[in-house]
Design goal:
With about 90 residues, the chain is of the alpha+beta class. It has 2 helices and 4 strands. About 20% of the residues lie in helices and about 15% in strands.
């Protein structure tokens, strides 16, 4: 699954985004504008989480088709990542 995570740096007020494909190869993370580094523990949790979410297929089974007459070849689940506010409401 491809997706992005938006990060706001409150040191310089800029926003930047991470995508799993690019982020998986990084050894650390800092604001591209001011260079403020993200704590190593937070970085490792973020990296681990993004790598795992990237492995989740958009549809399951991955070779399924909406046009298949055979039940085992029909889409059983779709997965999407949505943003929620601090109270858990979808935005």
């Amino acid at each position: 699954m491809d997706f992005k995570v938006e990060i706001t740096c409150h040191n310089c007020k800029c926003k930047f985004q991470l995508r799993p494909v690019w982020f998986a190869e990084q050894d650390d993370l800092s604001c591209p504008n001011c260079g403020k580094e993200i704590d190593e523990d937070v970085f490792l949790h973020l990296k681990s989480g993004l790598k795992e979410l990237a492995l989740v297929p958009t549809i399951f089974p991955e070779n399924a088709s909406v046009f298949s007459a055979e039940k085992e070849n029909q889409i059983q689940f779709t997965f999407d990542i949505k943003e929620c506010d601090i109270l858990g409401n979808e935005t």
